[in-house]
Amino acid sequence: MTNVADALPSPAATRAALEATGYLADDGLATALFCAARLPQPLLLEGEAGVGKTEAAKALASVLGTPLIRLQCYEGIDAAEALYEWNFPRQLLAIKLSEASATSLSEHELFGRDYLVGRPLLQAVEHPGPRPAVLLIDEVDRADDEFEAFLFELLAENSVTIPELGTVRAIHPPVVVLTSNRTRDLHDALKRRCLYHWIDYPDVARTTDIIRRRVPAASEPLADLVARAVGRLRSLDVQKPPGVAEAINWVLALDLLGLSTLDAGAVAATIGSVLKYREDVDAALERGAEWVASGG
Fold first, then answer.
1. SS3 for 68?
2. pLDDT in tens, 241-251
């Protein structure tokens, strides 16, 4: 973990460094990221969509001055997409060249490193340093149980196994951050290998600060109005409660339209920036655009 201690000497310093990148973390999240990087131990971040889980990993990579290697999970993801695959066109070309020149090409040569295409997990394990890469395994809850089990070797031993080549161990073990929106429960065996932190929706003051940092052109009164309106929308029975990401998008839309305040007209014109289901929009407008804008 060369120089990681210099970059992250304490949880308080970690929080300050994250803030310098534009990411506002509370003490709990800063401490979790500090421990994940310094132990090192994988960190599982859970929370509703849009609360900043992915951005936390990006900010940590920025603080460390190291690559962010992202694996986006989805239903049906497998080892070929996550770890490695063989370059079949190149293998086929090598076979044809071997036949044309009447030379022999062994299976060992054909399945050697020259024909291997590294995917995110292998890239993270083989990162040359001097600081470890940040490996983001995003939305791991979208993958299946088999893929979770596939991750155990990496999470527990900082290594991966390629049947044709053997085990590859990390010289600089990656800082692993997994995120989950809790669309399903993760296996206890995966959680046992990880630190854990739940990211909740930030309060109005913190949401306002985040908006101001991400949209510097926005005035503090507008950012505050949007932060409060997003909180009101979350109180409705909506399919997708808006998070910080939606609040930022809302302010960006208002700014683009030259709107400096949030009133009923602005809500009606831009509600699609923050709510993404027709039923959610209907529920909000049924309550009233004025209520969304000011609680009145």
1. strand
2. 999 999 999 99
pLDDT in tens, 141-163: 999 999 999 999 899 899 988 88
User: What letter would DSSP give residue 273?
Assistant: G
pLDDT at 16 exceeding the cut of 80:
yes
| H helices present in the chain, as ranges | 4-7, 11-20, 27-38, 53-64, 79-82, 88-100, 107-110, 120-125, 145-157, 188-192, 204-214, 220-234, 244-256, 264-270, 278-287, 289-294
DSSP state of 131: S
Q: What is the pLDDT of residue 70?
A: 97
Q: What SS3 class is residue 291? A: helix
Closest by CA to 29, choosing from 1, 72, 63, is: 63
In a 13 Å sphere around the CA of 84, the CA atoms on its Cβ side amount to 24
Secondary element (H or E) of residue 168: strand 166-169
121 pLDDT exceeds 80? Answer: yes
- Give the amino acid at 190: L
Give the model confidence (pLDDT) of 190-234 as tens digits: 999 999 999 999 999 999 999 999 999 999 999 999 999 999 999
Nearest to 76 by CA among 147, 126, 172: 147
Do the strands 166-169 and 159-162 form a parallel or antiparallel pair, or are they unpaired? antiparallel
Contacts for 234 with CB less than 8 Å, ≥ 6 apart: 201, 241, 242
CB neighbours of residue 3 within 10 Å? 14
Cα angle, residue 24 at apex, residues 2 and 225 outer, rounded to 5°: 165
